[in-house]
Amino acid sequence: MVAEGDGALRRSGGPQPPDLLRLHEAIAGLFATQGDWRRAYQHLRSALEIARDGSLRDALTSSYNRRYLDERLYGPFTDRPPLGIALIDLDRFKSVNDTYGHLVGDRVLCRVADLLQEELPPEGFCARYGGEEFVLWLPGVDAAAAFGIVDAARRRVARHPWSELQPGLRMTISAGLAHETPGPETPLSPERQLRSADALLYAAKRAGRNKVAYRDAQTMQLITHSE
Questions:
Q1: CB under 8 Å to 192, separation ≥6 — which residues?
Q2: Domain GGDEF: where (predicted)?
């Protein structure tokens, strides 16, 4: 489970270059041959942190990967409540690959990941869930703020100048947002929230895409864009 290192990993902006990993390992070996175990340990620890960072990042987008998300979903829960979890899907992404090719599709995924990672709360993060799906983890914000963050991300994607990447290209996202503020007898369950977000994502798709779906205390609200 990642705790104090979370912020440092996020600020790194993605996996460190493999050469830096090998450099720390080589320096550690040099200090070890000289009997300077303290400095050897410091460089081995740096190498370990770089290797761990890379193992928790998606190789294509440099966002967090499914392994990191699973650690947060199923490991010890340390975030303070409340918590919002949004499951996001790129609309009609298969047609992007079919029309423009997988290289363009990969560039779209990378750019969407960058747009999703803007304006997150201090302990929030974006993870690639698989394929063209991403998860936004939004701790410590109320339902209104969580919706504002997700809908702002939706608008950033919709308004992005995709035609600069490929003439005629347009991209939107749909999202399902599950938010919980637990009571003393109802602890947070991120796994349950992700399942709820999945169902809400399908509701947003059925409503026409380029939407955020969330459930308030009594009813489901589908929020549509107004551009």
A1: none
A2: 81-217
